[in-house]
Amino acid sequence: MRTLWILLPFVHASAVVAAGNDSDALFWGTYRPGLYFGLRPKVPQSLMTGLMWFGTHNYQSIQKARHACSQDDGLTGYSWMEYDPRQGGVQVINDAPNNVKITTEFLKVPGGDFGGSWAARVKGEPLNPAIPSRVSPIFYIGLEGLGGIDMESEEHENGLEGPIVFTGSTPELDDFTIRIVEGPENHLIAEGPHAHAFAHKAGKSHYLGLQVPAGTVWKAQDHIMAPLMKYASEVVEGYKDGTKGFPDAAFIFQLPDESYTGSNLYAVQKHYDGPFHFDIFFQSGKQKLTSSVLDEGIPALSTAYNEHFDSVFPIPANYQNSDPDSLRTFSKALTSNLIGGVGYFYGTSIVDRGFAYEWDEDDNDSSEAAGKKGPTLVPPRSLLTATPSRSFFPRGFYWDEGFHLLHIGHYDNDLTLEILKDWINLIDDDGWVAREQILGEEARSRVPPEFQTQYPTYANPPTLTMAVTAFINRLRAHQRIPDADLGMEYGTGSQVPLSTQEGPNAGRRFLEEPELALGYLREIYGPLKRHYEWFRRTQRGQIKQYGRKARSRTEAYRWRGRSQQHVLTSGMDDYPRGPPSAGELHLDLISWMAFFSQTMRDIATFIGEIDDADAFEEIAKATIDNIDDLHWNEEEQMYCDAGVNDEDESYHVCHKGYLSLFPFLLSVLPPDSPHLGPILELLRDPDHLWSPYGLRSLSASHPEFGQGENYWKGPIWIQMNYLALSALHKTYAAQEGPFQTRAQQIYDELRKNVIDNVHKEYVRTGYVWEQYDPISGAGKRSHPFTGWTSLVTLIISETY
Predict the structure, then answer these.
(1) Is 257 an annotated catalytic residue?
(2) What is the mean pLDDT of residues 709-727?
(3) What are the angstrom distances between the C-alpha of 530 and each of 113, 616, 620?
């Protein structure tokens, strides 16, 4: 075993032990979330695996090949049903067009060198036993970067029989072996039209070895299908006269059983009729795995997962449901697919340091790099991140990630810290981090060109602060030690990496050992403070220029990077706003900045930076005061954006919807505020935001409700409902105030509405959705959307 530690005066939060330390339980994972099943380690340019399949019922079935998750595939549902980031999990894929239920089982095996070993099982069975289920799965292994891989099984031009063995070595993985083993009761296709002509190849595994250009293993489907289709066209040529009829599709659509010298991409193909399974073993060092490790390990994993899940996300007795077992299965799937959808990405990104809309340019928008014009590729970066949707958004989003980490943090605290640290590592010297992390060609291939470029004056809601605050709250609850004592008592750190802990407390080391938590917070404090100062510098709004009156002359904010119809940087893309202007002020952003200031205060207090904590507290108070001074409209009894008219006079831009609620949503509005009552009545009014399915994004009485793009003009978003429920539960129903009873009533009703509808739509469609229809409650847009929609698990268990 080779281990390299990074020594720091306190713990290095990302725990960058040498890639492949065998104690790193997070080293391997389903870190290719854009595929139905893809494994890789969390190191750049390394081994990548993937699964493809298609039906062989007829010749047309080849057009239904599966590899990358796609909404166009017509699947009736796919999700990790149980997934633990340190152990593995079980995924179920219902492919109705190919009449097969694919189950993928993944198990990490402790021991060995360089990241340990793993085992996987791919199972198939007919969805409808009354009709044929003939499936051809292809499992591939690709290698990027330094190292090599070879097929040890003796090559044969007619295919392979028995276990198939590959050996390889890379600097990150050292020596390894990969074995693919057939299940004992599989029915390999050897019968069908013209079977006699293909008897020498039927009933065998088929293979392909290719040398593909560097950086293109992610195009495995194209690389593999081209030779397969070429072979098929050559075979079919002999039957085109129509006198003999065509051979069975399973005999036609086969890999050509050839391998080229120096291959870095290998594929192995099977042809099955009816139920099947095969196993894949990645063996590090001298470990030797057999199918018994899966036979015994998967049930043990399931037991451990269910015990842990029930302890973290119980269904409280105060929530009545007609089918609690279905609700629990649903909640488990949300959590599992969120964590199973964590991806590891590495590559370049595109940045334009010069572009700005005309109303973005003012004295506050200055940067040393502002003179650089045009999009450019920046050096590669790496990122471990959860993803909003495996089919539509399989990459990192700043706006989404803070919500993801709220959920993951309850299940595995230390995994959240590792992901959070990767995001914080992306903060540049100026304090900026891109809204979308589109790292590398694979990620860019799934993003329209007009959205690929990122701009260093453009922000996004700083939701990572929610993850930091949640960690501090978990730590306070776990340790029950005053902040001051923690900051004074633990002055040194440790070289213990984030992901080394195993056993019953795995994933909780930074809760169990306060010195590690303190070291972590100290390390992220500097870059997070730089990020905070970037927000205050680049997103500041104008007060005195337009005769506005506020207690603070500095705390006002507006989103840069908007167009006439969209404020993409706000995260609420097409939500109605006033005309673009250098003088506009945005309610949501000033609310986020009040929350951000409170987070910085909490970190500073925790690590003993008392002077900083006092300064952040002063800024937070000034910001909250200015929310009332600049954004409250007494006549409308609501909070509003501010705009500037043709006479350069400030006025309120009032559109009833999520925006109006922001001081409440982020709990920066005091519980005894007289403004809380009108806010509660607005969100509870069926003519405006209230629906039987959750809070609408825009008032049903608004003239733009449901119009145009209709992205944030009415549809129900679960993360915003989560914020409302969290604020009600933790602040406004929990603390004394004139509206406490009303807050509790609304909480109980809203919680039931959200849970019931998302669960109902999951049962009806097989998916959770990006948003829900404000009239019918039906799921809409991308699916599965187990990003922030998975917050329903926290709503069910009331673990806000």
Answers:
(1) no
(2) 98
(3) 39, 13, 17
